[in-house]
Amino acid sequence: MTASNRQYDMEDIMTRAATYRDADAMRGVLRRIHDAVTRQWNIMEVCGGQTFTLSRYRLEELLPEKITMIHGPGCPVCVTPVETIDRAIDIAMHPDVTFCSFGDMLRVPGSEAALLQAKARGADVQILYSPLEALKMAIDRPDRQIVFFAIGFETTAPIYALLAQKAVGMGIGNFSLLTSLFTVPAAVEAIKLDDQCRVDALLAAGHVCAITGTAEYESLSRELGIPIVITGFEPVDMLYGISKAVDALESSRIGVVNAYGRAVRAEGNRAAKKSIDEVFEHYDARWRGIGVIKHSGLTLRRKFEHLDATRRFKFSHTSSHECNGCIAAKIMKGLSLPADCPHFATDCTPQSPVGAPMVSSEGVCAAHYKYNRFQP
User: Fold this and answer.
1) Among 181, 234, 344, 373, which is 20 to 30 Å from 160 by CA?
2) What is the CATH number of domain 39-320?
């Protein structure tokens, strides 16, 4: 790639590139990265949205060979464990249940089937675009048990907290949540401390930090001894974040750099954090393909536990098993690439996924299938 000879000021780029897809701005940041890097660095982008941007715009091909991007576990569809999918199917098959979910979750494979197969067998499974629709459904259909599949990270947790608060406040008795909620910092810590994994710097997800603020990442940066750059999801955002990470690595600086100042403040969203703390508490959660990570999940507090679908419905299964041959855990740790998987682009495709990372557009395997599978 031939970079422009113009000199670019990074802050100026982020101010004037209104669409954040400006080609000249991208060339300017890329030139800065190429000029700055002198050593091999492994940089993890933690969010599936960032992984999607890297693949869609082929940014990795434009980066110096010394920079390796590691695609982290930041897609909730990908890390929801098999047993939770099996439990969702079991609940959905109850004759008095209307099971509501975002569309991606219907294709995530459990140990034997997916929610889509349960729907084909007669389960009342509904695709919703907003969790608030489920609450309205519970009001309109008092004869049905309405269950919403609440997945995500700190970004979506506030809306589920609002749902729980409204359901309790309105005395709605036929509404419950099947939760699969995770927190990002605990997963990053677990991966960084894995003896097989080497992460030199982290790109943190801007929309998560818009909720949580930066304090938790400051302590995480000090604990792990790596720089953490908070960035957005457009191409210029991503390159700008990588540039800031390289600058920190080359000068041996740790700490947090907020490269997404238009959305993230140090204090985060106080109202959202208050709602999360009121409704949820941390627990040791299982991540698909990775295992149990301490204090990495969010579950309903005792005051709201009557809204927990796992308490309301008995689960008939006793064990669940992962798909044989899926190497998602190795991919998320930077030890393998999607193309290294024997299932990739053969029997595992977005139309017929074997593993969860092939389901969502933000899953690393799905992104590579769409944009990178013919890359040498």
Assistant:
1) 234
2) 3.40.50.11740
